[in-house]
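PROTEIN DESIGN WORKSHEET
SECTION A - STRUCTURE
LENGTH: 160
TOKENS:
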């Protein structure tokens, strides 16, 4: 067996569990707010996306430390870019149009942000992941009075 198959090489178990746990809890807070407001996406996708993004980031960083080949090169930024692009497609699935109004934009953006939170926690910047999650939850709570009353109906004068 190769080193790092059953245990992290670069991180301690405590550090790895802290990063994964933070990614789960931060995304859960965002997803729970969406769930309690009966938005089209419940909390589970937020947690799954953040957890998988975090695990992928930890795995990529750990792979760089356990590879002995001097010619081996991995760019974590490229991996993260691919992850965020893929999550963008998942977020697009939360969007739907009803007549002239697009619904689910907040949930779609929050899904994308959950992926970013997972990547951030995976890199070890748990404080930044928590800050992003808190800002998103705060935005949803503070924005609620405005979005609950928002009516984007189109009048006959607005149509082309």
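SECTION B - SEQUENCE
RESIDUE ASSIGNMENT:
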């Amino acid at each position: 067996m190769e080193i790092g198959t059953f245990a992290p090489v670069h991180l301690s178990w405590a550090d790895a569990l802290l990063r994964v746990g933070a990614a789960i809890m931060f995304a859960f807070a965002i997803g729970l707010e969406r769930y309690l407001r009966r938005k089209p996406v419940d909390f589970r996708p937020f947690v799954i996306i953040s957890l998988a993004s975090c695990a992928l980031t930890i795995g990529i960083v750990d792979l760089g430390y356990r590879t002995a080949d001097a010619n081996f090169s991995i760019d974590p930024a490229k991996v993260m870019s691919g992850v965020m692009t893929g999550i963008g497609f998942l977020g697009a699935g939360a969007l739907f149009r009803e007549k002239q109004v697009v619904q689910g934009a907040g949930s779609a953006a929050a899904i994308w942000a959950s992926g970013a939170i997972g990547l951030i926690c995976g890199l070890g910047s748990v404080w930044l992941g928590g800050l992003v999650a808190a800002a998103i939850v705060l935005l949803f709570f503070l924005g609620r009075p405005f979005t609950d009353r928002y009516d984007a109906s189109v009048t006959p004068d607005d149509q082309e």
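SECTION C - NOTES
The radius of gyration is 19 Å.
Residues 17-68+75-144 form one domain.
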